[in-house]
Amino acid sequence: MSQLAELQRTFAASLRDPANGQVMLDLASIGNEQLPHRARMDVYRNNVASSLIDALAALYPVCQRLVGEEFFRAAAKVYLDRPSPDALPRQASLIGFAPDFAGFLVGFEPARSLPYLPDVARLEHAWHRVYHGSEAEPVTATDLQAYVQTHGEQALDQLVLDLVPAHQLLMSPYPVSRIWQANQPGQDGQVTIAEEDRNERIFVVQPQAQVDVRRVSPGAFAFLCAVKGGATLGRALIAAFEEEQTRDPQSVFAELLNAGSFVLPTTVGETNS
Amino acid sequence: MSRMTHSPEMYSARTQAGGRIPLATDASLRSSGLLASDPESAATLALKPRSAGMSLKPQHYRQILSDGVDVDFFEVHAENYFGAGGTPHRYLTAIRERHALSIHGIGLSIGGAGPLNPDHLAQLRMLVDRYEPQLVSEHLAWCESGGAYFNDLLPVALTSEALDIVCQHVEQTQDALGRAILIENPSNYLAFEQSDIPETEFLAEMARRTGCGLLLDINNVVVSAHNLQRSAQDYLDAFSMDAVGEIHLAGHSNDERNGLTLKIDDHGSAPSAEVWDLYRAFVHKAGARPTLIEWDQDVPPLEVLAQEVATARTILGAPSSQPNSPRETNHVPAR
């Protein structure tokens, strides 16, 4: 191993483990010992720890608001100190960092009194994924009319659409989107929960410049899940009806279509254009 | 304790009202002086030496597009735009259409002993190809070891071995991007016993061997000089001024420990008076260079950044092409 590699390996180890820092004290030197080496090394150690805690706070701001900054930072520290190869980021960009923070919170004993917290974290992660997600031109009603003209009415029933690439689907037994909404900057954090708000089905998409956190009906959610699973349009309509018989599945589909939820599969797009 | 690293930039964008990206009318842009020239110019021209820019922050996206801001260029951290698409790219695309851009990487680990991460380099290349920035820069630092990333700019031991490795990494990056990059001098909290090349020499030799330029961060000079008990002025006097392609000006904080103070490079305030004085003197001596007001923590309103940019512009605008003229020496700060 080269000298530089050996030094950096030691330095890296001491960043994570203060006891290991003693090795560093023998390596570093500034020629003037007014300020102890440990204090200097601590700047880097502190930078790494606090910058990653800050990163978690930036990724999970609603969770932080729900539990308070002090609690959140303590929890974040436990998360970052966990013995896992993924405890530190595996890439320089922090986009997508800490995908399992919600899973960590499930088992985090001090947060037990907030059973909805992990699902709020899941929603925040979903928001983050969509915020950075890839762009696509959603299919419109006009596009589908053109498809019918080319291929006939029957073909529409057999058409397999895709969801827009930047999307997330979530279910929760808690009103997490209401909690999330009420804890956005400028909101007072108060949530009034009706019984029908309790179980939530959420579709996170970005039709315009803003990420949209949508509560959708059981039928709409079933429709979206069916499309995501590769079902034909006809099958997706049936799935929507089975889940929510009080709504016309065609209107469920129309609403989702107009909201820019779908794209044509590449093969269809190519033959049409 | 605060520090110069990055946090994912997205939270602040949530406070913005929904809807389409607002676009200022041409008339409002003309009146603000932003559309004075050919719209193509943002894409085609190199930065003029007297350009002054600011960090581009998500909380300012909408205001920049709706109201405009009097600035010559924006600078972004490359890694905040490594996502496939979404809000950051929509805004950066709209802003790039009317402003010059500098892409500043903080995570390539140029000073790392191991090989560069090919995925990172590929993503950087995609970003540079997409936005065609006027400037691309990175740091003399490392941030990765054994596949773990520390989200911090860590110090490089300045040895001939390190110089060879850094030069190889700079060349590899320049080859991948098809253009020269700038490398920034670090802020230091300690120095290594093994280091046997002065930092200014290390940077100059790297620039000479690879053809890269240097990004002179004057705040880093002040921070390092204080922390390592050296002279900031001596450092600047030894700096390879001809290689400087950009200057960074930022703020730092003071961290008290047992009655002793370390200066922490946190980019969380306006540049200090000392930074401004050294900047003024450097511009006077070396001539104007594109200058960035860098502000990453506790980001203030856009107007505050614009005010700092205006201050830099004033200094850049001062005649500096005849450094030996007696009249000019009057501009040199008294201290």
CATH topology of chain B: TIM Barrel
**Oligomer type:** heterodimer
Tell me the radius of gyration of chain A: 25 Å
Tally of strands of chain B: 12
- Give the strand order of the largest sheet of chain A, numbering strands 1, 2, ... along the chain: 2-3-4
User: What is the terminal-to-terminal distance of chain A?
Assistant: 57 Å
Mean pLDDT over the full residue set of chain B: 86
Task: Flag low-confidence runs of chain A.
Answer: 269-273
Portion in beta strands of chain A? 5-15%
| Amino- and carboxy-terminal Cα gap of chain B | 31 Å
Give the helices and strands, then pairings:
The complex is a heterodimer of chains A (273) and B (335).
Chain A lengths: L2 H14 L4 H7 L9 H23 L1 H7 L1 H12 L20 H6 L10 H15 L9 H11 L1 H6 L3 E2 L3 E6 L3 H7 L17 E6 L6 E4 L2 H11 L4 H11 L5 H10 L3 E2 L2 H7 L1
Antiparallel strand pairs in A: 1-5, 2-3, 3-4
Chain B lengths: L25 H6 L9 H4 L7 E4 L5 H7 L5 E5 L9 H10 L3 E5 L13 H14 L3 E5 L2 E4 L2 E7 L5 H18 L4 E3 L14 H12 L2 E5 H10 L4 H7 L5 E7 L2 E5 L2 E5 L8 H14 L4 E4 L7 H16 L8 H4 L6
Parallel strand pairs in B: 1-2, 1-12, 2-3, 3-4, 4-7, 7-8, 8-9, 9-12
Antiparallel strand pairs in B: 5-6, 10-11
Helix pairs in contact in B: 3-4, 6-7
Describe the model:
The complex is a heterodimer of chains A (273) and B (335). With 273 residues, chain A is mainly alpha-helical. Chain A has 14 helices and 5 strands. Chain A has helices at residues 3-16, 21-27, 37-59, 61-67, 69-80, 101-106, 117-131, 141-151, 153-158, 176-182, 218-228, 233-243, 249-258, 266-272, and strands spanning 162-163, 167-172, 200-205, 212-215, 262-263. In chain A, strands 2-3-4 form a 3-stranded antiparallel sheet, with helices on both faces. Chain A has a two-stranded antiparallel ribbon with strand order 1-5. By secondary structure, chain B is of the alpha/beta class. Chain B has 12 helices and 12 strands. In chain B, the strands form 3 sheets. In chain B, strands 1-2-3-4-7-8-9-12 form an 8-stranded parallel beta barrel, surrounded by 4 helices. In chain B, strands 5-6 form a two-stranded antiparallel ribbon. The longest helix of chain B is centred in the middle third of the chain and has 18 residues, at 160-177. Mean pLDDT of chain B is 86; it is low at 11-44 and 318-335. Chains A and B meet through helix 1, helix 3 and helix 7 of A and helix 4, helix 5, strand 5, strand 6 and helix 6 of B.
